[in-house]
Design goal:
Elements lengths: L1 H46 L8 E5 L4 H12 L3 E5 L3 H14 L4 E4 L11 E4 L2 E5 L12 H25 L2 E5 L12 H21 L4 E7 L11 H4 L10 H14 L3 E4 L3 H10 L1 H14 L11 E5 L1
Parallel strand pairs: 1-2, 1-4, 2-3, 4-6, 6-7, 7-8
Antiparallel strand pairs: 5-9
Helix pairs in contact: 2-3, 2-7, 4-5, 8-9
Length: about 300
């Protein structure tokens, strides 16, 4: 057993030396044609984007924020909608406006989605999140609902939807967040739940192959229930640029119809993600200074708070 383990260690040492050299050489050879292919593919997807007319779309967390405005975008395209959320009154208002905007059929559900028999798009949007320093939490068990809603809620809906989406060669849309791409204090559990989402759907994409398209969306700071009231001040993000929900959802809808694999919105946030990959220490120090230790930070030690986006 020991000789076998020793030989495996030798193989790993060899790979540590050889593979970086091979990868660097391959990068110089294959990067230009890969970039050309990606640009051409993006142009073709934009020209021949999907027509959602008469398609059945299930949206969770549809009573407010991104979910609500995505319902309006799909309605304008003539899609049939199944809207899911906990708040029935708000959901009925969204359904009424969706019909006015052009949706031929709108069904509202407050929980059970198993009645849906045909499905073309599943939009996993429902989410909640706490705003507090992790060490200030009085009971870690209070974080369990965040994972249940943000992660397991999407997983359960997806498990139900996969047979229907395989049949229609449909799409799954995952509303993650920019916070799992860069460290943001006071949203550690929310960030973890969104990171789990991304990891799950990237793996699922490999499992289902080309039968089901998966678009993972990472929105930044959006004007929604999650950023209204005292939420942004508790997070120490007063004065940060907030994108309108309408503008964000228009970009998301176009990305879905193009069949994009990923969308980071707004686009300029991608540069921060790039810098975070290149020099994470500098980005972490800068974010800590801006959001925690900056002298004029309006709320350096906020109490726990709850952000909600149904």
């Amino acid at each position: 057993m020991l000789p076998l383990l020793s030989s495996m260690d030798s193989i790993h040492k060899l790979l540590n030396i050889v593979l970086p050299l091979i990868s660097l050489l391959s990068l110089f050879i294959f990067l230009p044609p890969i970039l050309l292919f990606k640009i051409s593919s993006s142009i073709l997807r934009s020209v021949f984007s999907e027509n959602v007319s008469e398609k059945v779309v299930l949206i969770t967390g549809a009573s407010s924020g991104i979910g609500k405005h995505l319902a309006y975008e799909y309605a304008k395209g003539g899609a049939c909608l199944v809207l899911v959320a906990r708040r029935q009154k708000q959901l009925q208002e969204v359904a009424c406006k969706a019909r006015q905007l052009g949706s031929p059929d709108v069904i509202i559900e407050t929980g059970d989605v198993s009645k849906v028999e045909d499905l073309d798009h599943l939009v996993n949007n429902a989410g909640i999140g706490p705003v507090c320093m992790f060490e200030d939490a009085t009971n870690v068990d209070d974080f369990a609902p965040i994972m249940n809603i943000n992660f397991w809620g999407s997983v359960y809906c997806t498990h139900f939807a996969i047979p229907h989406l395989r049949k229609s060669r449909g799409k799954i849309v995952v509303i993650a967040s920019i916070v799992q791409l860069r460290p943001i204090p006071r949203v550690s559990i929310y960030s973890a739940s969104k990171g789990a989402l991304v990891s799950f759907y990237e793996t699922l994409r490999v499992e289902v192959g080309s039968d089901i398209g998966i678009t993972i969306v990472a929105p930044g700071l959006i004007d929604s229930e999650m950023t209204k009231g005292e939420s942004t001040s508790k997070a120490g993000m007063d004065g940060f640029p907030v994108e309108s929900t309408e503008g964000c959802t228009k970009a998301i809808f176009k990305s879905i119809c193009r069949g994009d694999r990923y969308l980071i919105e707004p686009a300029w946030v991608r540069l921060i993600h790039l810098w975070n990959l290149l020099c994470p220490e500098a980005i972490e120090s800068f974010i800590r200074w801006v959001l925690i230790t900056r002298p004029n930070n309006s709320n350096p030690n906020p109490n726990s708070g709850q952000l909600k986006a149904d």
